[in-house]
Design goal:
eight-stranded parallel β-sheet, about 20% strand, alpha/beta
Length: about 350
């Protein structure tokens, strides 16, 4: 599905419907195209910038608002008939936490049963998400990135159509509900720059996952085993494995099957040194040997590695796509061999 969407996006970009900005990581819509799209959408879509609720069409289905203060969101409660609402986006909140008020989310966000897409990213005054999220039976996309949310309610397990959950930058969030493993349609979970310290058991049950920016090994404490990764064959893009010092049985590392994950382009391997025996050089080397990824990899990060040498696969000619290798706190190695043999390394 994502591949088809990406192909359509490339076609629209080639026809100047979308235009890349200087950073090339984001796009804008040409003014004429925007006017045409707005005309075609009519009353079904609205981008609200001013505090003018009287002009909200009763049939609006796709709503985005640009507000510096989340306090204004409360004004939407009961302001219009939201029974047709499918999309609710908040855009560009530039206010500091001191300017934002500590308020609950408006009812239309937590109780409108027909919503498919909800984005509340960068509203740092959001600390709690209501348990009534279970009412959003049709929700497919939920973005709480860079909020101050402290807990995801267990009732999220009732959102059986949820495909995307974005929690990037949620630094007050330390865990995910165990019930999340029942959301079998989940394809993307973004935990980048998040404070989550452990993942629910059986995260490998989410076999359609394509994005899981971080996996945390907790084998010594009865938590997630690295072998769970063996079930996640569709992982792609950026992927980090933390807590490699918590691996109990190195056979579990082989069961992770990183070499089968053809779509990974950036891999981070992190030893944190919190476990008894975690600094054992021989064990570090054996774990690294078994973490050989697929050859499409472009960027490799290794941190806290205490082995005396690096694995042979790290310099193999088949890894011709690797252009960058970052080594952090790997002071026990006295040689960069075989990394220096990588043909495309910049």
């Amino acid at each position: 599905m994502e591949a088809v969407g990406e192909e359509y996006f490339k076609i629209l970009t080639s026809r100047s419907f979308f235009q890349p900005v200087k950073s090339k990581s984001s796009f804008i819509m040409h003014g004429c195209m925007h006017d045409l799209a707005t005309f075609v959408l009519g009353d079904f879509g609205l981008r609200l910038e001013e505090n003018d609720l009287d002009k909200l069409p009763k049939r609006v289905r796709h709503l985005s608002i640009m507000k510096k203060d989340i306090h204004h969101l409360k004004q939407f409660d009961g302001a219009f008939d939201a029974k047709f609402l499918r999309t609710f986006l908040t855009l560009n909140s530039n206010a500091s936490p001191e300017q934002q008020h500590d308020v609950q989310l408006p009812e239309l966000v937590s109780e409108e049963k027909r919503l498919r897409v909800v984005s509340l990213s960068h509203y740092r005054s959001i600390k709690d998400f209501p348990a009534s999220v279970e009412n959003l039976k049709h929700l497919r996309y939920l973005d709480l990135s860079s909020t101050a949310i402290r807990e995801i309610p267990s009732t999220i397990c009732y959102l059986h159509k949820l495909e995307t959950l974005l929690l990037r930058g949620c630094r007050n969030l330390t865990r995910l509900p165990a019930e999340i493993r029942g959301l079998l349609k989940l394809r993307h979970i973004d935990l980048d720059n998040c404070a989550v310290k452990e993942l629910p058991l059986r995260i490998g049950d989410l076999k359609d996952l394509q994005t899981l920016s971080r996996f945390i090994v907790r084998e010594e404490e009865g938590g997630s085993s690295i072998k769970e990764l063996g079930k996640l064959r569709n992982l792609r893009g950026k992927f980090d494995i933390w807590g490699l010092d918590n691996v109990v049985d190195v056979e579990n590392v082989s069961a992770a099957k990183l070499s089968d994950k053809k779509f990974l382009t950036r891999l981070g391997l992190y030893w944190q040194g919190d476990s008894a025996g975690s600094s054992d050089p021989e064990k570090h080397r054996e774990v690294l040997d078994r973490l050989q990824p697929y050859t499409n990899l472009e960027t490799l990060y290794i941190s806290g590695y205490n082995g005396t040498s690096f694995s042979g696969w790290m310099g193999h000619q088949s890894f011709h796509n690797i252009v960058r290798v970052d080594l952090i706190e790997c002071g026990n190695c006295n040689s960069l061999s075989p990394i220096e043999q990588l043909p495309s390394l910049k």
